[in-house]
Specification:
single chain; mainly beta; 6-stranded antiparallel barrel; two-stranded antiparallel sheet; 1 helix; 16 strands
């Protein structure tokens, strides 16, 4: 599938990577002009994003719910004005490849964490089951209504870390699926939409220790 086959109104995920920093942003297709996809201006934390840095890797992911997600790598995005309106113009040098995020290496952790919901100030104790570069799975004793929450903020409570010397591990996630557990509570599978640079080092350390 060529990126120019995307249709107006379809939603894609624009994933930006810089070293170990990872940010996912949602975007909406506004149209296609000469093999270039016009996206409604992408904003992150209220600001229009500048994708001009040559050091940022851009991957565009499209999910239709019927097949494995399709991804275009080595994308380039720049601002473009068309008919008096500004857009983000997206181009990809190759056709898409199918990606199965569930095949990404993950670490089983079973360690405590703290969950904060964007529309609820009080935190909730959770059990983090697994973690990978794309997602996180955790158990929570209460049900999180998808329509009531935009983002989940998860903090790791790792007894083996020296809290006085190391920055806390925080990730921002969005619920992809959930299921009720027979013993009570709910299991949530989430994709990461934002993560601090220290997450990559933390995950690599956990993977190394799990292989020893």
């Amino acid at each position: 599938m060529k990126i120019s086959e995307l249709k107006k109104g379809q939603k894609v995920t624009v994933r930006c990577k810089y070293k170990t920093l990872l940010v996912d942003m949602d975007a909406v297709v506004a149209g296609v002009r000469s093999e270039v996809v016009l996206l409604e201006l992408i904003r992150h934390e209220g600001q229009v994003v500048d994708f001009s840095s040559p050091h940022v890797q851009i991957i565009t992911i499209y999910e239709d719910g019927l097949d494995m997600p399709k991804a275009w790598t080595n994308c380039r995005i720049q601002k473009r004005t068309v008919d008096g309106r500004q857009y983000h113009a997206l181009a990809a040098p190759k056709t898409s490849v199918k990606v199965n995020r569930r095949k990404v290496a993950r670490v089983v952790m079973n360690m405590p964490g703290r969950l904060k919901i964007s529309n609820a100030p009080d935190g909730q104790d959770i059990l983090i089951h697994d973690l990978c570069v794309d997602g996180i799975g955790f158990e929570c004793p209460v049900k999180i209504e998808e329509q009531d929450v935009r983002h989940l903020y998860i903090q790791f409570v790792d007894e083996q870390r020296d809290e006085d010397e190391e920055e806390p591990i925080n990730v921002e996630a969005r619920v992809v699926w959930k299921k009720e557990l027979p013993k009570g509570g709910f299991f949530y599978g989430c994709r990461l939409v934002n993560a601090g640079e220290n997450l990559g080092y933390y995950l690599a350390d956990k993977m190394r220790k799990s292989q020893q």
